[in-house]
Amino acid sequence: DPWLHFEDKYHVNDVVKGKVTKLTEFGAFIELEEGIEGLAHISEFSWTKKVNKPSDMLKEGDEVECMILGYDIQAGRVSLGLKQVTANPWDSISGNYPVGTKVHGKVVKITNSGAFVQLEEGIDAFLSGEDLSWTKKVKHPGSEIKVDQELDAVVTECNQENHRIRIGIKQLTDNPWKEFASQYKPGSTLEGEVTSITDFGLFVKAPNGIEGLVNKANISDDRDVPFEEAIKKYNAGDKVNVYVVSIDVDKEKVAFSIKEYKKAQARAELSQYMASNGDDDDGAYTIGDSLKSHKEEK
Predict the structure, then answer these.
(1) What mean pLDDT is reported for the chain?
(2) 3-class DSSP state for residue 162?
(3) Both 75 and 108 in a single domain?
(4) What is the domain range of residue 168?
(5) The whole model's pTM is what?
(6) Beta bridge partners of 26
(7) Structural domain ending residue among the three candidates 153, 172, 191
């Protein structure tokens, strides 16, 4: 009985040669020597490939190298692995793809939230729709990229333990949100273009492509005018002056206000008037008159 001397010849983690004797739906039986046969489960075929059926990789009569993963002499069973005789590419993934690395890959699958990009055989990275562009709001990744398309990207996350890599295309270029935040501080003003009108306000695009929201409460400076009426003054493509209320670079959000812009303009005009008429004896009367006329203009 060859099993009597099994432990003299075979040990766990030994790499051995054998012959494929039978294929099943769940794996392959491999003969190590006459009377001793082991099973390589389909999950032990490849580190990276999803093997649907054993016949995709093996056929009866094939000579193969495999590793002994475990055994039960009394039951006459040996557990074998095919993938264990090759290096697991995920073991070196953090060294090959550290965060910040530029990579080149091919799109293999597109989903509602992003796309999977093959970096090498069996190693796919996820490209989120949010990482396609700094400024463009991508509703569906399929409108921007196609399956089999080759592209360049930057590694944004590499998790060796969970076998996960994330990449981004927009990270190939400088973040315009940082540039915008340095150029336009809260309280500054700019001229932008209305890109869309919604039930909660209107979106305005700044000169460098950054898009921000003018909330419905920040459109009209006249409280008596309802939003539904105030919004009728604006159409997509209109040029409009806005006041920068707040900027969040990390969340890529900026809040604009038309109402605050008008207030800022009124304050600037008043300051300019006061400065130019500072020596006028009738200054107090004239300032009041200026305020009155400004109110009438509204």
Answers:
(1) 89
(2) coil
(3) no
(4) 89-172
(5) 0.66
(6) none
(7) 172
Q: Please give the Cα distance from 197 to 193 (Å, whole number).
A: 11
Among the listed residues 219, 203, 221, the one whose alpha carbon sits nearest the alpha carbon of residue 211:
203
Mean pLDDT, residues 180-192 taken together = 94
178: left (phi over 0), alpha (psi -120 to 50) or beta: alpha
Are 291 and 218 members of one domain?
Answer: yes
59 and 11 housed in the same domain:
yes
CA–CA distance from 214 to each of 33, 185, 202 (Å)? Answer: 77, 16, 5
Considering 121, 154, 172, which residue would you say is the last residue of a domain?
Answer: 172
In this predicted model, what pLDDT tens digit does every residue of 246-270 receive, in sequence order?
999 999 999 999 999 999 888 888 8
Q: If we measure between CA atoms, which residue out of 253, 258, 259, 290 comes closest to residue 272? A: 290
Q: Do 196 and 296 fall within a single domain?
A: yes
Separation between Cα atoms, residue 30 and residue 45, nearest integer Å: 13
The residue count of the chain comes to 298
CB atoms within 10 A of CB 265: 14
| 187 and 167 fall within a common domain | no
120-152 pLDDT tens trace: 888 999 999 999 999 888 889 999 999 999 999
Query: Integer distance in angstroms from the first to the last C-alpha of the chain?
Result: 104
Note the pLDDT tens digit of each residue in 275-286: 877 655 554 444
Cβ proximity of 87 and 48 under 8 Å: no
3-class SS at 209? coil
What's the domain count of the chain? 3
Cα–Cα distances in Å, from 234 out to 125, 202, 227? 43, 9, 12
From the DSSP assignment, how many helices (H) and strands (E) are in the chain? 6, 15
